[in-house]
């Protein structure tokens, strides 16, 4: 016949002062590991340096970037993205997606028209976020696996007009939340409207 013994009455290890200390240390380590995993694979903070996205995103603002969405669906026109810059692969840039794979982007005196298989006659982008215009003119063909990106401050942005198309593999994520300063807290817009 098997017998069991009841443990002696008293405190368990985690009820002792030292045990509580160890438990708190384990919680802190767990929280740090979880935060590191979230930052590595889910969201990442970025601080904006420069004025190429004025006025929507300004110099010194703190952004939270979603690094998961583009593993589930393709980037969309109008998304504000963070990416490794083709001309400077060690730096991150932030711009807005204007042209998708298969598009032909025509810029005439700063106005943007998009031509593709679904819209062979083209449509003009409605860009209410633009306050700094330019007089640029050019035609850009967006090849498969690439995107055409521009800063919202068109006269002060170093973007696809200068250095070419952005490879899909360079995209880090979508700017999701403008966090700091607190009075500027705002979810960032995604797809923009367009006019036929």
Describe what you observe in this structure.
The structure is a single chain. With 196 residues, this protein is α+β, with helices and mostly antiparallel strands. It has three helices and 13 strands. It has one domain (48-195): Ribbon (Umud Fragment, subunit A). The strands form two sheets. Strands 1, 2, 3, 4, 9, 10, 11 and 12 form an eight-stranded antiparallel sheet that branches. β11 (171-180) and β12 form a beta hairpin.
Which key phrases capture this entry?
Umud Fragment, subunit A; eight-stranded antiparallel beta sheet; alpha+beta; disordered C terminus; five-stranded antiparallel beta sheet; 3 helices; 196 residues
Brief sketch in words of this structure:
With 196 residues, the protein is α+β, with helices and mostly antiparallel strands. It contains three helices and 13 strands.
Show the helix and strand layout.
Blueprint: H1 17-41, E1 43-47, E2 62-66, H2 69-72, E3 80-85, E4 88-99, E5 104-108, E6 111-115, E7 123-125, E8 138-141, E9 146-150, H3 160-163, E10 166-167, E11 171-180, E12 186-187, E13 194-195
Antiparallel strand pairs: 1-2, 2-11, 3-4, 3-11, 4-9, 5-6, 5-8, 6-7, 7-13, 9-10, 11-12
Estimate the mean pLDDT confidence.
79
Q: Per CATH, what is the topology?
A: Umud Fragment, subunit A
Describe the biggest sheet? 8 strands, antiparallel
Just give the CATH class. Answer: Mainly Beta
CATH 2nd-level architecture: Ribbon
Parts with pLDDT < 50 across at least 5 consecutive residues: 189-196
Give helix and strand order, one letter per element, not per position.
HEEHEEEEEEEHEEEE
């Amino acid at each position: 016949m098997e017998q069991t013994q009841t443990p002696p009455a008293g405190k368990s290890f985690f009820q002792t002062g030292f045990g509580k200390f160890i438990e708190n240390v384990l919680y802190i380590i767990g929280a740090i590991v979880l935060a590191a995993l979230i930052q590595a694979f889910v969201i990442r903070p970025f601080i904006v340096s420069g004025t190429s996205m004025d006025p929507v995103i300004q110099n010194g603002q703190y952004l939270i970037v979603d690094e998961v969405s583009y593993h589930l669906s393709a980037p969309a026109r109008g998304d504000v993205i963070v990416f490794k810059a083709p001309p400077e692969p060690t730096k991150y840039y932030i711009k807005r997606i204007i042209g998708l794979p298969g598009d032909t982007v025509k810029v005439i005196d700063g106005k943007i028209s998009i031509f593709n298989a679904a819209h062979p006659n083209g449509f003009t982008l409605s860009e209410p976020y633009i306050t700094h215009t330019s007089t640029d003119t050019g035609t850009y063909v967006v090849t498969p696996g690439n995107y055409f990106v521009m800063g919202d401050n068109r006269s002060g942005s170093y973007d696809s007009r200068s250095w070419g198309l952005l490879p899909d593999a360079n995209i880090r994520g979508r700017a999701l939340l403008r966090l700091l300063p607190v009075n500027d807290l705002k979810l960032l817009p995604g797809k923009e409207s367009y006019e036929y």
